[in-house]
Amino acid sequence: MSVAELRGVFPYLVSPVDARGRVKTDVLGALVEHLIEAGVHGLTPLGSTGEFAYLDAEQRIEIVKCVVRIARGRVPVVAGVASTTTSGAVELARKFVEIGADGVLAILEAYFPIPDAGVEGYFKAIAEAVPCPVVLYTNPQFQRSDLSLAVVNRLSAVENIRYIKDASTNTGRLLSILNETEGRMKVFSASAHIPACVMLIGGVGWMAGPACIIPRESVALYELTRKGKWDEAMRLQRKLWAVNEAFAKFSLAACIKGALELQGFAVGDPLPPQAPLSEEGRAEVKKLLERVANSLVNSE
User: Fold this and answer.
1) Residue 21 lies in a domain
2) 110 close to 82: Cβ distance less than 8 angstroms
3) Is residue 47 part of a domain?
4) Does this model's pTM top 0.70?
5) 165 domain residue, yes or no
6) Is 287 a catalytic site residue?
7) In 30-64, which positions are buried (b, 16+ CB within 10 angstroms) versus exposed (e)?
8) How far is it, in rounded angstroms, from Cα 208 to Cα 12?
9) What contacts 24+ positions apart, CB below 8 Å, involve 192-197?
10) How many domains does one find in the chain?
11) What phi and psi, each to the nearest 5 degrees, are found at residue 218?
12) Which of 12, 65, 124, 137 is flagged as catalytic?
């Protein structure tokens, strides 16, 4: 699939894996079909919600193969590439593109802190290894080595590094990125941000786990912002924000996997040693999903 531009709602897919470590491709395939039918604009396997840090290379490859196969070019697939080594990331990126991924979400894993030159070199090497669009991913809550504004600006000069998904809670940082890169770098919102507000300042969409469980509502919100219907968008955003709050309250994969289980997708629990969603959490998420659905019905 030739991708001219990435924009819209890209759910961070969960990674359904059974107790023996086998990827549950039937479940993942059903989720992909459901999300495409719901109108999402793209799919992102192996983001944070996809538990990439807990998967080996074979499992990651199987997941991307499954998503690409089921998507069948209907929407772009932007696969998460993460490694502690530059060579490992380059190898994975090339493999995913060979499989058929339309883009790469580049993530830096680090045990020791990495200086700016090393961070810049890591992302630049990934971009130089593939012909597709590269989305930078920065999440200072979990990463030891973040992308500074200066590094983001320099990377924006690399031809195929055209997007960044910033999972900080600092919306001002997003505006600084847009201003500093003068339009070269387009911004995707994360669940840590209020998507409608990111769209207002010039964002192009959002890549986040909550879109897995409220895809139609997420697409509706995106379309309202694209049409400039800000009053309607904010009414809908207020109703949906509770999902983002739950996502922040409970562990990432546990919350989304628990919600998907309630929706009939047998995605299972997060990979050990992560804990599954508690019974209390499941009850809260169930009520949340019902409340969001009812409020949307009542607003129509």
Assistant:
1) yes
2) no
3) yes
4) yes
5) yes
6) no
7) bbbebbbebbbbbbbbbbbbbbbeebeeebbbbbb
8) 5
9) 192/141, 192/167, 192/168, 192/244, 192/248, 193/166, 193/169, 194/237, 194/241, 194/244, 195/221, 195/222, 195/225, 195/237, 196/221, 196/224, 196/225, 196/230, 196/233, 196/234, 196/236, 196/237, 197/171
10) 1
11) -65, -45
12) 137
Residue 211 structural domain? 8-216
> Is omega for the bond preceding 273 within 30 degrees of 0, making it cis?
yes
289 in any annotated domain = no
Q: What type of residue is 263?
A: Q
* CA 46 from centre of chain: 8
Helices (H), the chain: 25-37, 57-71, 86-99, 116-129, 149-155, 171-181, 195-200, 215-226, 230-249, 252-262, 279-299
Contact in structure between 80 and 105 (CB atoms under 8 Å): yes
- Tell me the pLDDT tens digit for each residue of 235-275: 999 999 988 888 778 888 899 999 999 999 999 999 999 99
The residue annotated as part of the active site, out of 165, 186, 239, 257, is 165
Closest CA to 50 of 92, 15, 82: 15
User: DSSP letter string over 55-110?
Assistant: --HHHHHHHHHHHHHHHTTSS-BEEEEEESSHHHHHHHHHHHHHHT-SEEEEEE--
Is residue 163 annotated as part of the catalytic site, yes or no?
no
Question: In which residue are the tokens 């107790």 written?
Answer: 19
CATH number at residue 135: 3.20.20.70
Q: Cα–Cα distance between 206 and 167 in angstroms, integer?
A: 10
**Per-residue pLDDT tens over the stretch 107-162:** 999 888 899 999 999 999 999 999 999 999 988 666 666 799 999 999 999 999 99
